[in-house]
Amino acid sequence: MTRILLVDDHPLFLDGVRAALTGAMDLQVVAEAHDGGSGVTLARDHRPDVVLMDLNLPDLSGVEATAQILAAAPDTRVLMMTMSADDDAVVAAMRAGARGYVVKGAGRNDLLHAIRTVAAGGAVFSPTVADRLGRFFTGMAVGSSREAFPQLTQREREVLDLMARGLENRRIARELYLSDKTVRNHVSNVLTKLGAEDRSEAIARARAAGLGGG
Hints:
Elements: E1 2-7, H1 11-21, E2 27-33, H2 36-46, E3 50-54, H3 62-72, E4 77-82, H4 88-96, E5 100-103, H5 108-119, H6 127-142, H7 145-148, H8 154-164, H9 169-176, H10 180-194, H11 199-208
Parallel strand pairs: 1-2, 1-3, 3-4, 4-5
């Protein structure tokens, strides 16, 4: 039995998803949340096999909620729900650890197939998204940032790279689909881990290591 957590702020859409899952004997909805923060809490409490996560939520974004869920429950698989597969936030969600996405309005068979594929350890995304992810992770593998700053998390490296490109916190938040507060926390962590006195010193060290040139 695959245990599922639904996270979406639209009750009517949740009703539709719940109805689509009715009759699937191998799938069970164990909890529902209407915002990202509640989704993170319920994921920690219930440890579902799959979280069906709306990309756009009123408090935490789907990207932020995904990152927090996977940090607390790494065996959980997250499947995003989005209005458009072309949304850059889809790729951001994959970077955060989501296993794929399903477009809202997809048929019942497509939805069930996506859930079962992700639950089995597979991934569900288009060739275009796969290509963009491939370029992103290839760049990470061959770049110097990972070797230069091993004390940073992947997200902190992303923030540092954008800092090195000259972006301010609010723009970084938009680029990574994070809240301003989350970005401020990441910047603070970066400065602490690098032992930098201020933002300028961190940027200088990042550029010397090859970040900020993309």
